[in-house]
Design brief:
With about 350 residues, the chain is mainly α. The protein contains 15 helices and no strands.
Length: about 350
């Protein structure tokens, strides 16, 4: 199956129009949800929005968020202080407006980038993973933007486990350095703003029962086969997502839709994300949140992660590497070593 390569890429005007349309649709979905049921769910962004307001007021968000506290929800603040700092401007806005902007802007930016060569990634925006990410106003669209716009790399610090995967998936050494510099800058700013945040954050995540690696899911070890394509940034992104502890979530699967090489593959994976979207019951239906996380992790592994792995392994292991790495792998068999030249034109 060959990549979708048109005779000419979409024009800048076309890309801007597509980005605006997708951003507006995402914003309208979130806006309507909030208008008709403003308190229907407490999203992670709601927590971070409140934390941003607390920082702006000079207060400690870790003392304010959690069961029975001023921001009364089921969880303490599991995010490092870099998360509220990364969206600090929306702390001045009402929560409804913040939700709309944090859904619309990254959706538009992502659409603008993904149409730079052709339209093969557009099915991503009709996937269950994208719909879940928008309706829950989650981080993966923001993190995907950091992957393609490295000056937004500070967003990787907001969710360090997935942020590591984003850094691993940097498309060049220059992008990785820019992203790392932005992460360092916002981390320094966090310690300047509230020097004691790290201890309180560690205490909060130490009580989390649902962070787990796909390496602990039966069959999840197969995902390490992605390292056979280690030269591809999308393979390194995939391997990191398989290894880092995380809450099993359909929203994170949005990042896997960046892996396929053709419109047909993207469409297949987009359709597969509707299986967990429709068939995994809400967490309230399970005896515990950990039980829900187990069910979601198992479902995602077989309906999204393993098919994405198949599409990844269809790509050749080609791509540039620094000279010291080329020297280190020179003696390995070709099927492991891969090639520095001839990168697959459909790779993301």
């Amino acid at each position: 199956m060959t990549p979708d390569v048109p005779t000419s890429p979409p024009s800048l005007r076309t890309r801007v129009i597509i980005a605006i349309v997708i951003g507006v649709i995402a914003g309208v979905i979130v806006g309507l949800d909030y208008a008709y049921s403003p308190a229907w769910i407490l999203t992670d962004i709601d927590q971070v929005w409140f934390a941003a307001r607390a920082v702006l007021d000079g207060r400690n968000p870790y003392a304010l968020i959690g069961p029975g506290r001023e921001f009364d929800g089921p969880w303490p603040l599991y995010y490092p202080l870099m998360a509220p700092l990364s969206i600090l401007p929306v702390g001045y806005l009402p929560i409804g407006a913040s939700r709309v902007l944090l859904a619309a802007i990254p959706s538009g930016l992502l659409a603008f980038w993904l149409t730079r060569d052709d339209y093969r990634f557009l099915p991503l925006f009709a996937s269950g993973a994208f719909l879940a990410s928008i309706k829950l106003v989650q981080w993966p669209p923001l993190l995907a933007c950091a992957l393609f716009f490295p000056w937004l790399g500070f967003l990787a610090a907001a969710k360090p486990n997935l942020g590591l995967a984003i850094l691993a998936g940097a498309r060049s050494r220059r992008d990785a350095l820019i992203m790392a510099a932005m992460v360092a800058a916002i981390t320094l700013a966090a310690f300047v703003a509230q020097p004691g945040w790290y201890t309180e954050w560690r205490e909060a995540i130490g009580s989390a029962p649902h962070f787990r690696s796909y390496m602990l899911v039966p069959g999840g070890q197969l995902l390490l086969l992605s390292l056979l394509r280690w030269r591809l940034p999308e393979a390194r992104l995939f391997a990191a997502l398989a290894i880092v502890p995380q809450t099993p979530s359909l929203t994170t699967a949005l990042l896997l839709l960046l892996i396929p090489a053709t419109r047909i593959e993207v469409s297949i994976l987009a359709l597969l994300t509707f299986i967990p979207f429709f068939f995994v019951q809400p967490s309230a239906a399970y005896p515990s949140f950990s039980a829900w996380a187990d069910a979601m992790g198992w479902m995602l592994l077989f309906t999204v992660y393993l098919p994405a792995l198949v599409f990844l392994l269809r790509k050749p292991n080609v791509g540039p590497m620094p000279n010291f790495i080329e020297r280190a792998v020179a003696g390995l068999p070709l099927w492991i070593r891969g090639s520095q030249q001839g990168r697959h034109p459909g790779a993301s």
